[in-house]
Amino acid sequence: MINYYFTKEPSWNRVRSKLILTMKLTFLMVMIACLNVSAKVFSQEKLSFDMKNMELSRALKLIEKQSSFRFVYSPTEGPFNKQISVKVNKAPITDILDQLLEGTSLVYAIEGDNLVTISSKGKLLKDITVTGIVTDAAGLPLPGVSVSVKGVKGLGAMTDGTGKFSLKVPDNAILVFSFVSYETQEVAAVAGSTMRIQLKESNNNLDEIVVQAYGTTTKRKTTSAISTLDMKNVAPLPVQSINDAVAGRLAGIIVTTTSGAPGTKSVISIRGGGTPLFVIDNIIRSSNDFSNLNPNDIQDYSVLKDAAATALYGVAAANGVIVVTTKKGTEGSTNINYSYNQIFSQPTLFPTKVSSYEQLKAINDVYVAEGIQPPTKPEDLEGFRLGTDLIKYPNTDWRKVGMKDFAPEMRHDLSLSSGGKVTKYYASVSYYDQGTILRTDKNFNRRTTYRLNTTSNFDNLNLTVTTNLDGFVENNSQPGVSYGNLYSHIQNKQPRQQAYNEFGLPSNNTVDNPAVELHPQSGYIRNLSRVFNGNLGVEYAAHFLEGLKFKFNGVYNMYNSIGKSWNALAPSYANGSTTPIYANPPSLTSSSGEGKSITLQGYVTYNKTFGDHSVDFLGVYEQQQFYSSSLSGQRTAYQILFDQLLAGPTLNQSVGGSEGESARSAYLGRLNYTYKSKYSAELSVRRDGSDLFVPGKQWGTFYAVSAGYSISEENFMKGLKDKHIFDYLKFRGSYGVTGNSDGVGRFLYIPGYGISSVGWVIDGKAVQGTSEPGSLPSVNYSWQTIKSRNFGFDFASLDNHLNGSAEYYYTRTTGFVVGDPKFSQTLGIGLPPINFAEGANRKEGYEFNLSWNNSVGKLNYKVGLNFTRFNTLTERNTEDQATLQNPFTRGSGVANDFLRTGYYNAGFYTDYSQLLSGARIINANNVTAGDLRYQDTNGDGQINGSDNRRIGTNTMPRSNYGITVDLDYKGFFFTTVIQGAGNRDRYIGDVVQGASGQTLLTYDFQTDYWRPDNTDALFPRQVSTPSVNGSQNYQISDFWLIQSKYLRLKYLQLGYDFKHSLLKKSAFQQLRVFASGTNLLTSAKSQKYFIDPESETNNYGYPVQRTISFGISAGF
């Protein structure tokens, strides 16, 4: 079955039929369970038991497991360890209890909701009903707090979304309130009035839940590198994507905002790797799904960084894993939360341009210096200086022509949470509308996300059923020339170029005129995306073995997209004319795509504590099947302005499309053992199968081992613990081997052919080619291998106020699947792929994080610091003949170890002796003072390609750090993130250099060029054209290389919650107003060129944005 699965493409119809059948069977099981529950509620429950020589307490526990009854008793008030024997068949609970308690001093009473109290005769406790509300130190309600009765098993409740609880307990009961990250409290039960319990945050978070691969654990048991994020101060930030919100908050996480264009998502990396794997509610999802996840829906956020943490996800987790769980409903009254944000954004940087007069005067001066007639006559120069005739002497402010002062954005979020004893639900909807800084109202990005999570607990069946339904609709509209191109046109246009004629109509005197491109009649690029995900989970807790659970997950994912690109320019007008002039005729491209996937998972888990020993086991079988298709069509040279394919001419039309199916399956397991919360060890194994490889080599077995030693639990550490030098100290390490299939094409083991349009003339006849052979096939390749090591420690000190961790990691990737290119040209065809045994990439680094949390009176505060540093090295890769000629350029295509190759600069020429004695570029004959000098690195007396050397580091920052501050005081709250990056270089582009086609002084900062009175300049001397000195100044060299390190005030939020003052007795659980900002302040060397340090372009693309926002949130 498995061989067939990978050697034949799966039929989508067969997959769909299996899914429908599975869903029907699951639905039938759930309906039977519901009917069974209903039947037992409305009838007298009949039970059958055969108990022989069993302790009374164990017998009661067995009844609880196999029925809906719960028992309340104190083990010290009666002979609950007495051996009993009872055999009954379909008997009521009263008959069974009469036999169990016969001959003892115990009596029982059956209360409502099948609650049975047992006590000694004369001491039968009277039940009372207690109600109350649980809040945090700031007075805000805490949902999900566990309320139990001390010394009584099986009796308890959870606070609802408003922090309220209601529970029937024995008189004089002691209530125990416990919640993750808060100190446990014990309070005597009080009837007749509402109890008000205020929990205090705990500095000891060792029992905090940590989301890991396919489940959860606690920090105390964790032996791998996992970072968690507290969503409390993250979710409220008015950001477009959850990726934006985590920047600067976690060690090892690198977030780069490369563009501010509407709909553009930030890029996230773990320890400098590629795109990580994203997992939502234990299901692998796309990066686009994750980016569009509503931050307010996230309950837990974890980052899995080492092989031990990621091993269970196999090959897909080579770059790390980000795992989140979404919020679930809570029992109790309906809890409603709503928030609104109004956001205003503008570029972080915008260079100031010189005036037309300043530009033309500088150009004239250059021509005079070169002994050439100046291009601008004195009377024209004076006309530009006076600026009285802007048609003849333009001085256009292109920023005003193409840009608004700010771009508007807004966000609405609404969520509801509620539930009864059986079913609980959480529902949410979010709407985000992002406008553009460009002077147009027809371009935007609008996104609606939705979610419905339900959890149904059928306690008497030991069954839990969960459903998660979520999705989003995203509509993006941008100019026909794209955001990046249009913004660069605004930025690069010269002030002496004309935007409008004297009638205020867009001028045709300027190529790529933004006034034309932004006209309402201009073209557009539109994309509409829809995504839907459905997840059905059924979990059964075995009654025959405590701690054993079985679970099934079935997931259906569907997406479709529609794209339309109407390439049309609005009319432009000549000076003195109102007659429209149309440029090239319009063209239209329409495209659509869709995809479906099915994920099936079968779980078995076992969790048990035996005295000092704790065992956690997980076993999973998982299979995934994918289907995708796309279709596109294009027609050009439209004669009418009608943006439909059918309206275009058929000449030169084109169509395209694709369709594909793929599959993957895996077996995986994890075993964790802990002794006395002191020693921990974990083993993870995954067997992956992929149809990328030849049958017989499709499966790979990968593993990881890890161990932890909590040395602070040793007796010899007691003195240090008592003095709070080390409240907690744990050392851990891991080693893992993971498979990787990145870059491996499909069906490389089968001879392939490509469609060819090449024709020949044979014997005087035209022969049209239809196909051509591809690369040679091969069966000698399989999984690439990644070996990883991680060592770290976690600590808490000074009464748990100071917490921190540190990591060192090293990874090495071998076995690249490639065809050696050295002989491809000789052979005339691509060589067959192999695992390149000599090739390897490696990466090593370290990271740490520190946090200090405390309170002073009513002021609660937390300060954090995190730092990440890594380096990569390509030990060897395949090379062609060109790179073999110069060993310094080896690996230039890898772009991991260095930025690019170029010359080393030696500053400016300053005197003739340097000109006469130094090596120069061939044909650079008019070099003079103020031109750039280059080092003759190989000493052959000339500057050429042999002098190229590696320059700069990769654009991925090698050092990253963040500082976080969170404060709250009597209802006021404040949070800020300062984020920075280092060990990163950027090569500035030709526009910024002033070498774009011709040397043009465009920006104010470019006036700092070399002159005899300005030898310590930012730019070399100005020349009339680059060819004057053989383009000496614009060769690729480290002169144009700048450090792109930066320090940035990434986020800041300040607000107040009126619940602390005016609304203490109102229905509101919170009513907050706040102001926020992003990218408010930046310090970076690239700013002198007016380039944002995070920007993706070396010239000027759509800029990174600074935002100011105002918002309100309410909960009731």
Automatic annotation (TrEMBL):
Superkingdom of the source species: Bacteria
Domain Secretin/TonB short N-terminal, first and last residues per copy: 69-121
Cross-referenced InterPro entries: CarboxyPept-like_regulatory (IPR008969), Plug_dom (IPR012910), Plug_dom_sf (IPR037066), Secretin/TonB_short_N (IPR011662), TonB-dep_OMP_SusC/RagA (IPR023996), TonB-dep_OMP_SusC/RagA_CS (IPR023997), TonB-dep_rcpt-like (IPR039426)
Cell location: Cell outer membrane
Annotated SMART domains: STN
Membrane topology term: Multi-pass membrane protein
Family, similarity comment: Belongs to the TonB-dependent receptor family.
Name of protein: SusC/RagA family TonB-linked outer membrane protein
Source organism (scientific name): Pedobacter frigoris
Lineage: Bacteria, Pseudomonadati, Bacteroidota, Sphingobacteriia, Sphingobacteriales
